[in-house]
Amino acid sequence: MAVAVELTNLERRFGAFVAVDRISLSVREGEIFGFLGPNGAGKSTTIRMLCGILTPSGGSGSVAGFDIRTQSEQIKQTIGYMSQRFSLYEDLTVEENINFFSGIYRIPAAKRRERKEWAVEMAGLKDHRAARTSTLSGGWKQRLALGCAILHEPRIVFLDEPTSGVDPLSRRRFWTLIHELAAARVTVFVTTHYMEEAEYCDRIGLIYRGQLIALGTPHDLKTAVMKDDVLEVECAHPMDALDALRQCPSVREAALFGNQLHIVAAERARTEADLRALLEKSGCALTRIERITPSLEDVFVSLVEAHDRDNGRREHTA
Predict the structure, then answer these.
(1) Do residues 182 and 90 share a domain?
(2) Is 86 in contact with 60 (CB distance < 8 Å)?
(3) Count of CB atoms within 10 A of residue 286's CB?
(4) Among residues 34, 86, 127, 227, which is most buried (max CB within 10 A)?
(5) What's the rounded Cα separation, in Å, for the pair 30 and 190?
(6) Is the per-residue pLDDT at 47 higher than 90?
(7) 110 and 251 share a domain?
(8) Are residues 172 and 243 in the same domain?
(9) Is 50 exceeded by the pLDDT of residue 9?
(10) Which residues contact 210 (CB under 8 A, 6 or more apart)?
(11) Domain boundary among 216, 234, 262
(12) Residue 312's pLDDT band (boundaries 50, 70, 90)?
């Protein structure tokens, strides 16, 4: 399958600060690729380099076969890009926004009406086409922004935090649109910090402090990449238990999930025995303990902790 996006040791520095630290990966044609990480991890900076907006400080890359260093204008004409601010003009109406982007993308006059009707229909705005964009809900703005970004029918679409600030139902509907694009062989490169959204992607790259710390399908990350067992614990006073369990040597990580605790175990049998003894001693009566398939959040937290431990050891021995 053809490669749509390729990065090799991509780097971006702002003075002494390294925002993107030697990232290498490739994205296949028609793939939904998720770039997952916390705010400030380097996701948006990477996207801007791929879209020809920022020049890399090091490394190389290509988008649709064009070099991100030397052919940024060709890239801009080839891709669709939707930023987390939706890239819409609030004082224009729905139709006026679509007309404006039709001109930006130089859509032939004979095709503009067809593409406008498609965008209005896709966004669910047939009855609001004359409405000022500032009056629309977050979900409608989101779908309108996507329609404007792909009016010219690009084969590669970059979506930078596209669901930030919208309600869960709008997020779900938006992902339905993303899957429809992928079904039409459009490559979708999407950044997000919502762990549950990453499950919708074909593959995920986990980025932390500018570095790619894991790469694979959601299933691979939860099985092959996550080597430790994850235990789910139900007990009384979970917040008190959490503080106690974090001091337990056989517990790698402990986190609260609703009213339950997720424990990353160094050795399952030993950790279970330690948990039972520690909870009894702390007065947090144990209700249930069992091994579970880790969530992507479990995987991410575990990898981040391991990354910080390794960096701490390197700094200590430097």
Answers:
(1) yes
(2) no
(3) 15
(4) 34
(5) 13
(6) yes
(7) no
(8) no
(9) yes
(10) 18, 19, 20, 21, 23, 41, 42
(11) 216
(12) low
Angle at 219 (CA atoms; ends 215, 222), nearest 5 degrees: 80
| Cross-sheet strand order for the sheet of 229-235 | 251-257, 260-265, 229-235, 286-292
Q: How far apart are CA 101 and CA 153, in angstroms?
A: 12
Q: How many CA within 13 A on the CB side of residue 294?
A: 27
Over range 271-300, report the average pLDDT. 87
Which domain covers residue 142, as residue numbers? 3-216
Same domain, 206 and 266: no
Nearest C-alpha neighbor of 235 from the set 257, 268, 251 = 257
- Last residue of one domain, picked from the residues 170, 185, 216: 216
Number of domains in the chain: 2
pLDDT higher than 80, residue 317: no
List the beta strands (DSSP E) in 78-210. Answer: 79-82, 156-160, 187-192, 203-208
Residue 225 is predicted with a pLDDT of: 78
One domain for residues 80 and 169:
yes
Whether 318 shows a pLDDT value over 60: the answer reads: no
- pLDDT value at residue 283: 87
Alpha-carbon distance values, 52 to 45, 47, 125, 186 (Å): 11, 9, 31, 19
Q: Which amino acid is at 143?
A: R
Instruction: Specify the range with the lowest mean pLDDT, choosing from 57-71, 128-142, 187-201, 298-312.
Output: 298-312
Cα–Cα separations (whole angstroms), residue 6 to 23, 28, 64, 142? 10, 9, 9, 27
